[in-house]
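Weekly modeling sync, notes
Attendees: S.R. (lead), two postdocs, one rotation student

Agenda item 3: backlog of single-chain predictions. S.R. asked that every request posted to the team notebook include the full sequence so nobody has to chase files. The rotation student volunteered to paste the first one in as an example of the format we agreed on. Action items at the bottom.

Example entry:
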Amino acid sequence: MKARGPTKSATAFRTISEVSSDLDVPQHVLRFWEGKFPQLRPLKRGGGRRYYRPEDVDLLRQIQNLLYGEGYTIKGVQRLLKDGKVDDDPDVRKAEAGLDEPDALETVPDEAPMALSAMVEAAPIVALDSMSDTIRQAIAQALDELREARHLLAVEEVKEI
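Predicted structure, as returned to the notebook:
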């Protein structure tokens, strides 16, 4: 494939299409992450066109690695960013989170995400007021994970078409 033009310098701002291509992440995922991670603040010009600074691209790379490479949830990455532990050693992070046991990172069968999604859709609405904060947070985290899984499955289905 032929390059379109001269290569940009390392300090140049990047468009969303350039960042999407560099990270191999769809543009809609980058926009989604902007809503989930307030640390991501690309500049927006007239018409809403985004321009990512080099530090934005670095942060996106870290988020991508934590979500896809290390298996963190969005809430987990949010917590790491808030606590300033993004640059820490991955083994130290996992040990602190209690994920150093072999069974803690079991793989999920291929059909499990669809079954979980169906269960969530069919689940009765529960009054959250009577639940403890811990249970409420666990449910919110599980729902975020299910939404992210559904999103990733939809992206994979689009790729297959």
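Discussion: group reviewed the output briefly. Helices lie at 16-23, 27-36, 54-69, 74-83, 90-97, 112-122, 133-160.
Action items: rotation student to repeat for the remaining queue; S.R. to check formatting next week.
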